[in-house]
């Protein structure tokens, strides 16, 4: 009888130990599974971040990187202007006045050609409505002399877009209007002083600028802009009248 009792007691202990071992194995397997689950989860997060970084890198163009390097030479360099398949392909400056870069290069060297420069009153943060750029109409063909080709509608049709690059954005603009103007006397009323428009205080001012430019345009481009869209205006001298100006207005499309 005692043997049977001892045997039964031994069997009970063995079963308990077996159950404990099984439970421990289950716990260990769960811990291993949890470990790999977390590892895979972290890897997925890292993978998604890598994709995002890749997408950001793709948005940084070669021109943007070159411009960033160029700014190390002169902080006044704020962009690069290009009209594809033309001679218009220059860095753009912005100084504390609208005089210095009329007679200086982007390297701050004296030059009768000057530079292409953005109006001193343009604000970057928040951005003003209109990037108003000036450049000389030089007889040697430099700077903005080539803009006068746009007097011909056929030339516009061959070159309907303008590129403007900053260190943070590579943008394209489509031309809305092309017109002749001049610097008006102070006592002249009801005239379109395009050179005063940099930032629209309201929709009415913005629409006025677009509409007056379209009215004065040498031809109809069939393009227009709506309030809030970024504008780009190129201005140079034009000698068919006293203090004459030749103007191109464009809007950002991407």
Per-chain topology:
Elements: H1 2-59, H2 62-70, E1 77-82, E2 89-93, E3 116-118, E4 130-134, H3 153-158, E5 161-165, E6 170-182, H4 203-216, E7 231-237, E8 244-252
Parallel strand pairs: 2-3, 4-7
Antiparallel strand pairs: 1-2, 1-5, 3-4, 5-6, 6-8, 7-8
Descriptive labels:
8 strands, Sortase, Chain: A, alpha+beta, 254 residues, eight-stranded mixed β-barrel
Task: Please tell me about this protein's structure.
The protein has 254 residues and is α+β, with helices and mostly antiparallel strands. The chain has 2 domains: 1-59; 62-252, Sortase, Chain: A (Beta Barrel). 34% of the residues lie in helices and 21% in strands. It is built from 4 helices and 8 strands; from the N terminus they run H-H-E-E-E-E-H-E-E-H-E-E. It has helices at 2-59, 62-70, 153-158, 203-216; strands at residues 77-82, 89-93, 116-118, 130-134, 161-165, 170-182, 231-237, 244-252. Strands 1-2-3-4-7-8-6-5 form an 8-stranded mixed beta barrel. The longest helix is centred in the N-terminal third of the chain and has 58 residues, at 2-59. The chain is elongated and about 115 Å long. 25% of the residues are buried. Residues 41-56 have low confidence and may be disordered.
Provide a concise account of the structure shown.
This protein has 254 residues and is of the alpha+beta class. The chain has 4 helices and 8 strands; from the N terminus they run H-H-E-E-E-E-H-E-E-H-E-E. The chain has an 8-stranded mixed beta barrel.
Residues in helices, as a percent range = 25-40%
Outline the biggest β-sheet: 8 strands, mixed, barrel
Provide the CATH topology of the largest domain: Sortase, Chain: A
Topology as H/E string?
HHEEEEHEEHEE
The average pLDDT value, as a whole number, equals 86
Number of helices: 4
Shape: elongated
The secondary-structure class comes to: alpha+beta
Number of domains: 2
Strand order of the largest sheet: 1-2-3-4-7-8-6-5
For the termini, the CA-CA separation is 96 Å
Strand content: 15-25%
Radius of gyration: 34 Å
CATH superfamily of the largest domain: Sortase
The CATH architecture of the largest domain would be Beta Barrel
Stretches with pLDDT under 50, minimum 5 residues: 41-56
CATH class of the largest domain: Mainly Beta
How many DSSP-defined strands?
8
């Amino acid at each position: 009888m005692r043997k049977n009792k001892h045997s039964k007691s031994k069997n009970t202990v063995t079963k308990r130990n077996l159950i404990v071992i099984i439970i421990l194995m289950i716990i260990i397997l769960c811990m291993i599974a949890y470990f790999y689950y977390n590892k895979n989860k972290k890897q997925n997060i890292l993978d998604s971040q890598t994709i995002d970084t890749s997408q950001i890198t793709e948005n940084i163009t070669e021109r943007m990187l070159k411009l960033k390097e160029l700014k190390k030479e002169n902080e006044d360099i704020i962009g690069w202007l290009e009209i594809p398949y033309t001679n218009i392909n220059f860095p753009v400056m912005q100084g504390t006045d609208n005089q210095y870069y009329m007679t200086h290069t982007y390297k701050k060297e004296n030059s009768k050609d000057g530079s292409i420069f953005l109006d001193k009153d343009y604000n970057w943060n928040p951005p003003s409505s209109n990037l108003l750029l000036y450049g000389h109409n030089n007889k040697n063909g430099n700077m903005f002399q080539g803009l006068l080709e746009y007097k011909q509608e056929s030339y516009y049709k061959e070159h309907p877009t303008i590129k403007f690059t900053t260190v943070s954005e590579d943008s394209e603009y489509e031309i809305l209007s092309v017109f002749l103007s001049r610097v008006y006397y102070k006592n002249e009323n009801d005239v379109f002083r395009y050179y005063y428009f940099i930032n629209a205080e309201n929709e009415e001012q913005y629409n006025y600028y677009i509409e007056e430019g379209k009215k004065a345009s040498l031809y109809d481009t069939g393009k227009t802009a709506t309030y809030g869209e970024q504008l780009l205006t190129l201005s140079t001298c034009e000698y068919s009248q006293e203090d004459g100006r030749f103007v191109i207005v464009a809007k950002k499309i991407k």
